[in-house]
Task: inverse folding
């Protein structure tokens, strides 16, 4: 028998009697502490509950899994983890293996950092986009940057978990994560993140010393947030009840803003660049085709498709907008090339 | 003082001693049962814990909020809800109002259906896209359909919550929700959902009679899933450990497939349609410009940009692919219009 038990975000005091008894009566209890740090006090408290053997499980032990599986074949075995047990994919894989080995598994779900966090900072759950993790490695920043970009294009909030390395007792600090985001912006340059971006730093959610700070990155980056764990949220478009909540229930350094307002999709950026350029190229070539009947329709069509591009963009039909401006540019450039002008693509 | 207490997904037996005492000692306890059904037994059990007054809170009472706020000004007041308290936006708004009124608020987070669900069905948490709700109203289906489409384009999983109406004791059945999805596909016709789409129906997650069934919609729609609540997941691209988990820990009617494989963005659909069309149009017009030196570069460029469109698409640069094929089409059509041929846009 293998139990997966979530400790939740508030620790042992929030365990039910039933769950305590499962831990107490198990013959083998593993506590994994590599997905999130667990304090010495909590470790000792948990150990003191156990009648059976108690052991800290390092990452390799859970990833390898053989010892846990072997124990679970013979004994009531428990694997305890911070938050909800299945936020970590290692635990899911262990469950699949156990089931394959005909070991019965049961789960005690608990509060998870991701779902608790969103409510604690005052945001709506259904407006959260893809969750991401930032590691302390500038080379790994393209994926997080792209995810925030996609989330902002969808107007959704980005929940950012920060690297935790148990062996090195390392927890990425929010200021460093925000700096990494500002740095990747410099190379990617898609205007996703700036000093003016509004963000929320949630510290020690679920603990008595929980602290939530919100504001522009330029101000957040100067703050001290105290002991880990921390998470960050880059907000998307805010409902007014979300703005109100942020102002009231967080330490709010700056007025919340809509971070998604200025984020432009590649299509929008193309239309902004090409529409004036193609219009100008069209007017430049027009006099060279005056009174040439067979070219009149080309000039008319070019003008119509430039207008279409702008209108499609307004209607949110980005792909049609890009197709139209590309087409208009092609019509104009054919006329230009034929007269020895440089094409404008 | 206003407490927001989450009952979690497994009910009263999973409440900690500490939380029970808060409920026991409160002067006023509200139990809201409009976000998810709570059984009579559970209501009675909760009531039996309370020393103070116990009251069922209908939606209007929480949305209006005045009674709760007034009580919380004078008394230890508790609002209990299923799952995690802040998944419901009404509760968040109440918290903001209470804080504005200088009422201290505290929260007991708990397991929420969304985070528990994902692990229980064997999926990775960080691969979940935007969460959506399906209501029993065909006219409201465009947004859910678009969200699933966007999630599949991002290869992510779509967690679908189903309408619950406390006053009518109505819980949308999974079969009906799946039928609504098949119906909206008929009108939208973007090949997002079909009888062959792989889905997971999660029933009564966290309860002893929890049941998870997975398979193609054509087979799921014939099943009976028993008592509510149910949720549905339309899976995106599956990691092999996710497929393995689904096969092992759910009642798996069919081999899991990648639902995202055949979902095409509008850009991809455009490239598929326009590339062969523009190639053909180019070959048709080419003989009419043989030996006309000033047009040679137009023909060469048209060919290059058609190839570019295909290559950009392969590299995932969809916008550039569309811009290129639009441009190539414009070059070719200018040549066609000038010779009295029909344009191909």
Result:
């Amino acid at each position: 028998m293998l139990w997966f038990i979530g400790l939740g975000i508030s620790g042992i005091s929030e365990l039910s009697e039933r769950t305590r008894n499962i831990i107490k009566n198990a013959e083998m209890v593993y506590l994994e502490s590599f997905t999130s740090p667990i304090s010495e006090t909590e470790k000792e408290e948990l150990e003191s509950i156990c009648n059976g053997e108690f052991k800290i499980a390092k990452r390799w032990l859970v990833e390898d899994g053989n010892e846990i599986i072997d124990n679970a074949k013979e004994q009531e075995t428990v694997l305890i983890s911070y938050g909800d047990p299945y936020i970590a994919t290692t635990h899911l894989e262990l469950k699949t293996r156990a089931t394959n080995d005909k070991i019965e598994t049961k789960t005690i779900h608990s509060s998870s950092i991701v779902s608790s966090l969103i409510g604690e900072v005052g945001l709506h759950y259904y407006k959260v986009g893809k969750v991401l993790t930032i590691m302390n490695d500038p080379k790994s920043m393209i994926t997080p940057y792209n995810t925030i970009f996609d989330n902002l294009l969808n107007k959704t909030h980005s929940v950012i978990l920060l690297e935790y390395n148990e062996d090195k007792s390392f927890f990425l600090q929010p200021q460093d994560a925000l700096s990494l985001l500002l740095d990747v912006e410099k190379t990617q340059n898609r205007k996703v993140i700036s000093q003016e971006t509004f963000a929320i730093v949630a510290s020690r959610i679920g603990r008595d010393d929980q602290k939530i700070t919100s504001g522009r990155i330029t101000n957040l980056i100067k703050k001290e947030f105290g002991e880990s764990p921390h998470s960050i949220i880059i907000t998307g478009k805010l409902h007014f009840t979300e703005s109100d909540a942020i102002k009231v229930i967080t330490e709010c350094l700056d007025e919340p803003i809509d971070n998604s307002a200025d984020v432009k999709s590649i299509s929008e950026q193309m239309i902004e660049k090409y529409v004036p350029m193609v219009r100008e190229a069209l007017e430049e070539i027009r006099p060279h085709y005056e009174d040439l009947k067979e070219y009149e329709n080309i000039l008319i069509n070019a003008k119509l498709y430039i207008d279409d591009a702008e209108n499609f963009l307004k209607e949110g039909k980005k792909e049609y907008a890009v197709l139209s401006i590309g087409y208009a540019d092609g019509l104009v450039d054919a006329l230009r090339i034929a007269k020895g002008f440089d094409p404008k693509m």
